[in-house]
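User: Can you help me understand a structure? I only have the sequence.
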Amino acid sequence: MRSARIQMAAALLATFALTSAHAMNMKQSVGGRAAKPAPHRLVIQVDQNDPGVMNLALNNATNVLEYYRKKGEDADVEIVAFGPGLHMLRADTTPVAERIHAMKDLAFPGKVRFAACGVTREGMEKKEGKPLELVPEASMVPSGVVHMMELQEKGWSYVRP
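Assistant: Let's start by predicting it. Here is the structure, written out as tokens:
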């Protein structure tokens, strides 16, 4: 009797394993062809007015985009600048303007975006007494930190160089 129970348990486990494997294969294919892998999404934080950190963030973005391009997979990268790091995206103080401009072309078919923190911009404008101009590739978000939180809540990976 004990032997029959063991055989029954083994049969159930084998059936479960085969059913699970079949279900996974079904999820990976659609209509007989392999499903497209989910896009890779990375948010990179820049919060220092340091050309080394800015260049490292751009290097990280470039490496990710090139890695997935070679694999034939999509990747999206967003660099979020806030606090002293906003200098990366300021037209008058950025030491990396040429690299930012070149990134737009490099990223295709993936996407690279540059997000500037509105809270930081407002504080800098108040302190300096003048409006700040951003590099043309940058877009404004209300809060850099909140923007990064929301991207992570949507499944984006996070890196701080």
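Now, to help you interpret it: DSSP finds five helices and seven strands in the chain. Residues 23 and 31 are 14 Å apart (CA to CA). Let me know which part you'd like to focus on.
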